[in-house]
């Protein structure tokens, strides 16, 4: 056993959840957020989600539950359409597209698309790759076609960033709409985007903790905001539910060796705004002795359970925790920049991110409760508890 694993090894933690089944508890907390619909920043649903998370933290028995505010320019998609031929289609504006009323020829990505509105298929790259290809190729705008369809054959529309901080007109359409638009390649089309931007919007992180007796802190981080038009069940209402379950269990256990901070962020879907704000405000508290456990897309309807960590010893620890709970997992390298651990890693902390991907519903309007199996999700949460107990020294 490696020295790091020897530090974390502390016997078997107590079991999760007595009384109601863990799946039932997970479902209840997840549903408390998804029933609000989309929890977009700068909306009443975001504020209500924050209030509910604060109550959950207090009821879980966390210490010093409080809010920490931060400000940023909050973007919402508003109205978006594209007109081609004699048809008009509602589309999804990709964040953070600017206000746009553009008439230009539709163009295929396989042809010269300079000066046009280029159509690009999700099969040929991710959003960032398409952004770079479109801008470097001289396109005036990008329309990204989601090739996946739902289980019943219905259309899916991917929503999300082109690239954080960019100002390039971009929209997403389903595969069926994409096929229609492709038949109009070379013809004039009009793309209209009318986003809503609230300058200097104030959002809040919800923070609570369990005190520890030793060195270092474990941060358990999940975001409660959602993508713009989705109820976002697994990204990330389920992650917050897992966070609440872990907080309840830790509060019932003996005091941990390490302090554990539970951080529920907002603005994650607009460039990790809440996590960056927290890391900036607490920079002198974050360092190499600390570890971030990210709860983001902790389970979904399909895909592989992927273990990402900044150190091999942490990958090994997470793989063992998953195996103990019967969850088939795969080591998947560094956690990268895709979730709330990243600002902590920039300040020297270690990180573990266990998530199930790819799922066709990710960042679509079909990220809903009906596409989640809570019994399966409960096993993933049990593995997270085994992992947290080892990290915190319970």
Report on this model:
With 394 residues, the protein is of the alpha/beta class. It has two domains: 3-74 and 199-392, Aminopeptidase (3-Layer(aba) Sandwich); 86-186, Glucose Oxidase, domain 1. The chain has ten helices and 14 strands. Strands 1, 2, 3, 4, 5, 6, 7, 8, 9, 10, 11, 12, 13 and 14 form a 14-stranded mixed sheet that branches. Helix 4 links the parallel strand 5 and strand 6 (141-146). The chain is elongated, with a radius of gyration of 22 Å. The model is unreliable at 1-12 (pLDDT under 50).
Q: Topology, pairings included?
A:
Layout: H1 3-8, H2 22-34, H3 44-60, E1 63-84, E2 87-90, E3 92-93, E4 100-108, E5 117-121, H4 127-136, E6 141-146, E7 170-174, H5 175-182, E8 188-210, E9 217-223, H6 233-252, E10 259-265, H7 273-281, E11 291-294, E12 304-309, H8 312-324, E13 329-331, H9 342-346, E14 350-357, H10 374-392
Parallel strand pairs: 4-5, 5-6, 6-7, 9-10, 9-11, 11-14, 12-13
Antiparallel strand pairs: 1-2, 1-8, 3-7, 4-8, 8-10, 12-14
Helix pairs in contact: 2-6, 2-10, 3-6, 6-10, 8-10
Number of strands: 14
Residues in helix, %: 25-40%
Over the alpha carbons, how many angstroms does the gyration radius reach?
22 Å
Q: Return the structural class.
A: alpha/beta
CATH class division of the largest domain: Alpha Beta
CATH topology of the largest domain: Aminopeptidase
**What is the CATH superfamily classification of the largest domain?**
Zn peptidases
CATH 2nd-level architecture of the largest domain: 3-Layer(aba) Sandwich
Low-confidence stretches: 1-12
Taken together, the total number of domains comes to 2
The amount of beta strand, in percent, is 25-35%
DSSP helix count?
10
What is the typical, i.e. mean, pLDDT? 93
| Terminal CA distance | 19 Å
Q: In sequence order, what are the helices and strands, one letter per element?
A: HHHEEEEEHEEHEEHEHEEHEHEH
